[in-house]
């Protein structure tokens, strides 16, 4: 290796002077952080992208850390701190955030049905392990508030962004909605404004001096919780006599518009208020309908027990010059502190997740507004005051007002203290999307023990057994007088050996070698199968069991995995390998990361490593060089994603199954067909892969995508989840990084 170093030194003198980067030999993590900060400050940045290496212990990312990333992806550096476990460059270039949650799936499912997840393993370069799911996985990863059993009905924020302050608690007792309606669900009649409230908020009432010429709707039927609701919205203009009606929309339950009329004012129009009403002189010129026509039509349409729903409905009724006794006003239903009112546009977004009154339109759409008020009333009746209070609308509105004024919170602690918003609410505020795909309609519970029982591979032990048997090779026959020490040394040169034993039950001796990594076993098979050892041709192969029958196909697919495509495995590296590699990094174009595993007990560097390159071509060129006469290393393209390697490395000895043939009774044809029924996880995995592939291709470039398999809990135990992430069309860095 020394001559190669000298040549590299001369090459640097002759060539262009290389810019000095951070010292990666001392404090690799600190050097990477410095590089990240440098790249963040570059003015020519074009695309959002993720770092190659995830800084997570054993590649496991907690639910809180996921929440941390999602908040940063949505709000950016000005509002929250950067995630501690990965780096997202140029966050402001993200166009969308999309999260797919595959309910009832775990890391076991992904590798059990690896072939079926074809699109996911090829499209997403970043993979990490998730801990087994908690009681409410979704609440944890997006920071939704979860119920705590306490005497004062207080709510604790669980899974929210870590900060220097303690977790924020919200007392629902003090929420104005709870104070008015209580915490239990209420019926329609409880939401009606009382006569005193209508008087306080200036609704037109019979017998009042300013309502002498107003027309009553004649709706005096008996009101029940089943009475029909009608959404009402009016648009007005300014005339010489004040505000007058120009348009009325009435929407029945179910969203059907039963009345939508333009109205000609009786007096001279001074201002059409087009920016609000959308009405212009040209629109009203041909209109002949007058206020009295609309009043007559409305009286005919409304049944005796009709309940009108609107936003600031008193103004609409005054524009109509009509009196109606049964009303629900959404600006008062969703009670706000200090007598203030939420805007309809805000409630539509925060409660219903819909955009109305968009700035690119000319004025408001009266029918859309009427339909929205109706939906808001139905939502309140369906979910109750408690659900509304948990959304913390006051904090959301305050946060939105700060953002609109360009005075966003300064740091993470302020975000939590001022707004206590979940990731979902942050996405709503920023116009982003959070998409959940689940196998059940109810997304608050991700218990999937029933699904786990339908698959063959039920335990971590069996899944790890598959990898163990694939990492095991049998070699032989050897002559009885062969140099076994030299043979063992030969097999150890391909990678770390977990165990090596002599098989004497055969006519001639064989060796059983169990490697720590799949790459070492595959390399031994490819290099030694069919060679002559002391004049004897040996065969090197895996044991034949039901777990290794598809090993050849699986190995080919693993090579095509997006995380493995540009990664190579090397065996025979020594303690100075990293130093030599960095000194000659100019000949390894596209090198992004050096992964140097350490012994879990001693902490010493192992004699193998992984090098990650930007492209498959760069990886292949580097592999040819490193296997050459100057470096004399053994290697091949990687097969094991880093997160899985970290998981498999910790297999306790008692969970390893002795390789060998397992004989099980063959299932009947009917039983075999039953296994592949429609709801079998294998079919579900195939369908998930296809669905996500279609959705992914429809996304715009610059979309951060996370695929989350939450893990499962069942009577057989808890199983870790798996996360995959990437940015569509992301531009990867070519900066080498070191990770031990």
Automatic annotation (TrEMBL):
InterPro entries assigned: Nucleotide-bd_a/b_plait_sf, RBD_domain_sf, REX1-like_exo, REXO1/3/4-like, Ribonucl_H, RNaseH-like_sf, RNaseH_sf, RRM_dom
Q: Which residues form the signal peptide?
A: none
Which SUPFAM superfamilies would you find in this protein's record? Ribonuclease H-like, RNA-binding domain, RBD
Please list the residue ranges annotated as the RRM domain. 471-545, 566-636
Q: What CDD domains does the entry give?
A: REX1_like
Task: Provide the residue span(s) of the region labelled Disordered.
Answer: 1-22
Superkingdom of source: Eukaryota
Q: Which Gene3D superfamilies match?
A: 3.30.70.330, Ribonuclease H-like superfamily/Ribonuclease H (3.30.420.10)
Q: Does the keyword Iron apply?
A: no
The protein's matches in Pfam families, at most eight in alphabetical order, are given as:
RNase_T (PF00929), RRM_1 (PF00076)
Q: Which UniProt keywords apply?
A: Exonuclease, Hydrolase, Nuclease, Repeat, RNA-binding
> What SMART domains does this protein map onto?
EXOIII (SM00479), RRM (SM00360)
Where in the sequence does UniProt note compositional bias of the Basic residues kind?
10-21
- Read off the PANTHER family from this record: RNA EXONUCLEASE 5, RNA EXONUCLEASE REXO1 / RECO3 FAMILY MEMBER-RELATED
What name goes with this protein? Answer: RNA exonuclease 5
């Amino acid at each position: 290796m020394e001559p190669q170093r000298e040549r590299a030194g001369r090459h640097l003198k002759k060539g262009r002077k290389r810019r000095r980067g951070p010292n990666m030999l001392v404090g690799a993590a600190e050097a990477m952080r410095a590089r990240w900060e440098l790249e963040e400050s570059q003015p020519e940045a074009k695309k959002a992208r993720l770092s190659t290496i995830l800084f997570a212990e054993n590649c496991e990312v907690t639910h809180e850390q996921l929440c941390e990333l999602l908040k940063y992806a949505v709000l950016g550096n000005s509002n929250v701190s950067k995630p501690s476990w990965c780096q997202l460059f140029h966050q402001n270039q993200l166009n969308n955030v999309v999260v797919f949650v595959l309910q009832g799936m775990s890391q076991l499912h992904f590798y059990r049905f690896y072939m079926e997840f074809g699109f996911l393993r090829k499209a997403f370069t970043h993979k990490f392990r998730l801990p087994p799911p908690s009681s409410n996985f979704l609440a944890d990863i997006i920071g939704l508030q979860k119920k705590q059993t306490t005497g004062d009905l207080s709510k604790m924020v669980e899974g929210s962004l870590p900060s220097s302050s303690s977790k924020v608690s919200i007392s629902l007792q003090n929420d104005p909605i709870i104070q008015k309606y209580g915490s239990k669900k209420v019926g329609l009649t409880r939401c009606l404004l009382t006569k005193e409230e209508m008087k306080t908020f200036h609704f037109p009432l019979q017998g009042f001096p300013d309502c002498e010429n107003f027309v009553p709707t004649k709706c005096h039927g008996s009101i029940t919780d089943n009475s029909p609701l009608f959404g009402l919205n009016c648009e007005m203009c300014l005339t010489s006599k004040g505000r007058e009606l120009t348009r009325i929309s009435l929407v029945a339950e179910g969203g059907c518009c039963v009345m939508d009329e333009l109205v000609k004012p009786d007096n001279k129009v001074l201002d059409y208020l087009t920016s609000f009403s959308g009405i212009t002189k040209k629109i009203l010129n041909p209109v002949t309908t007058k206020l009295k026509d609309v009043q007559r039509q409305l009286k005919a349409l409304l049944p005796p027990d009709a309940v009108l729903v609107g936003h600031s409905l008193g103004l609409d009724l005054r524009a109509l010059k009509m009196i109606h006794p049964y009303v629900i006003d959404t600006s008062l239903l969703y009670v706000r502190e200090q007598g203030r009112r939420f805007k309809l546009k805000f409630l539509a977004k925060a409660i219903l997740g819909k955009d109305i009154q968009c700035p690119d339109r000319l004025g408001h759409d009266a029918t859309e507004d009427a339909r929205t008020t109706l939906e808001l009333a139905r939502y309140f009746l369906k979910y109750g005051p408690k659900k509304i209070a948990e959304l913390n609308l006051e904090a959301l509105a305050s946060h939105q007002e700060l953002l609109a004024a360009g005075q966003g919170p300064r740091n993470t602690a302020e975000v939590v203290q001022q707004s206590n918003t979940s990731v979902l609410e942050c996405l709503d505020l920023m116009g982003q999307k959070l998409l959940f795909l689940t196998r059940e309609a109810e997304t608050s519970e991700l218990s999937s023990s029933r699904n786990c029982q339908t698959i063959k591979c039920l335990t971590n032990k069996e899944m790890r057994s598959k990898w163990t048997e694939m990492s095991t090779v049998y070699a032989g026959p050897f002559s009885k007088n062969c140099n076994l020490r030299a043979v063992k040394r030969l097999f150890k040169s391909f990678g770390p050996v977990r165990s090596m034993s002599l098989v004497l039950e055969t006519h001639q001796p064989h060796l059983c070698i169990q490697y720590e990594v799949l790459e070492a076993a595959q390399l031994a098979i490819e290099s030694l199968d069919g060679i002559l050892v002391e004049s004897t041709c040996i065969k090197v192969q895996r044991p034949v069991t039901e777990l290794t029958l598809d090993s050849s196909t699986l190995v080919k697919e693993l090579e095509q995995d997006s995380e493995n495509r540009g990664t190579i495995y090397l065996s025979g590296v020594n303690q100075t390998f990293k130093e030599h590699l960095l000194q000659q990094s100019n000949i390894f174009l596209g090198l992004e990361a050096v992964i140097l595993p350490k012994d879990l007990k001693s902490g010493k560097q192992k004699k193998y490593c992984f090098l990650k390159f930007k492209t498959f071509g760069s990886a292949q060129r580097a592999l040819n060089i490193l296997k050459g006469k100057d470096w004399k290393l053994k290697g091949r393209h990687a097969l094991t994603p880093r997160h899985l390697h970290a998981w498999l490395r910790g297999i306790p000895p008692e969970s390893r199954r002795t390789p060998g043939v397992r004989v099980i009774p063959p299932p009947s044809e009917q039983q075999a067909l039953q296994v592949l029924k429609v709801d079998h996880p294998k079919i579900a995995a195939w369908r998930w892969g296809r669905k996500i592939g279609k959705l992914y291709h429809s996304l715009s470039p610059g979309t951060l995508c996370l695929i989350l398999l939450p893990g499962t809990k069942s009577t057989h135990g808890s199983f870790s989840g798996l996360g995959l992430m990437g940015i569509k069309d992301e531009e990867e860095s070519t900066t080498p990084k070191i990770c031990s």
